[in-house]
Amino acid sequence: MSEFKNVNIVKQANIYFDGKVNSRTIVFADGSKKTLGFMLPGEYTFNTVDPELMEILAGELDVLLPGSDWQAVAAGESFNVPGNAAFSMKVKTASDYCCSFLK
């Protein structure tokens, strides 16, 4: 899906790591949420509450998921992150992403 229709967007940005990672929250009619974001090159560790689906729309990165080895992820690929977990990313090139919060 290349666009979302009939959604609400939270105006305030989610800003992490001194502005190197930022996103906007999108809320759907059913209450589900996604964020659309952008990451500059760097190394980042995130913590989840709910399980997440991370879709990489542009860029290249390596991701370290719980219980796994580092794996390369590029534009057009995605990965799942369990809830209540930490995961790390080494962003190699500026990367555009969509994160879906799964409940």
TrEMBL record:
GO molecular function terms attached to this record: guanosine phosphorylase activity; purine-nucleoside phosphorylase activity; thymidine phosphorylase activity; uridine phosphorylase activity
GO cellular component: cytosol
Catalysis performed (reactions): cytidine + phosphate = cytosine + alpha-D-ribose 1-phosphate; uridine + phosphate = alpha-D-ribose 1-phosphate + uracil; guanosine + phosphate = alpha-D-ribose 1-phosphate + guanine; a purine D-ribonucleoside + phosphate = a purine nucleobase + alpha-D-ribose 1-phosphate
Keyword Signal: no
Classification via InterPro entries: Ppnp, RmlC-like_jellyroll, RmlC_Cupin_sf
Coiled coil ranges: none
Class in the EC hierarchy, top level: transferase
Keyword check for Membrane: no
Domain of life: Bacteria
EC assignment: 2.4.2.1, 2.4.2.2
Keywords of this entry: Glycosyltransferase, Transferase
Family affiliation: Belongs to the nucleoside phosphorylase PpnP family.
Protein purpose: Catalyzes the phosphorolysis of diverse nucleosides, yielding D-ribose 1-phosphate and the respective free bases. Can use uridine, adenosine, guanosine, cytidine, thymidine, inosine and xanthosine as substrates. Also catalyzes the reverse reactions.
PANTHER family given in the database record: PYRIMIDINE/PURINE NUCLEOSIDE PHOSPHORYLASE, PYRIMIDINE_PURINE NUCLEOSIDE PHOSPHORYLASE
Name this protein carries in UniProt: Pyrimidine/purine nucleoside phosphorylase
Organism: Methylomonas lenta
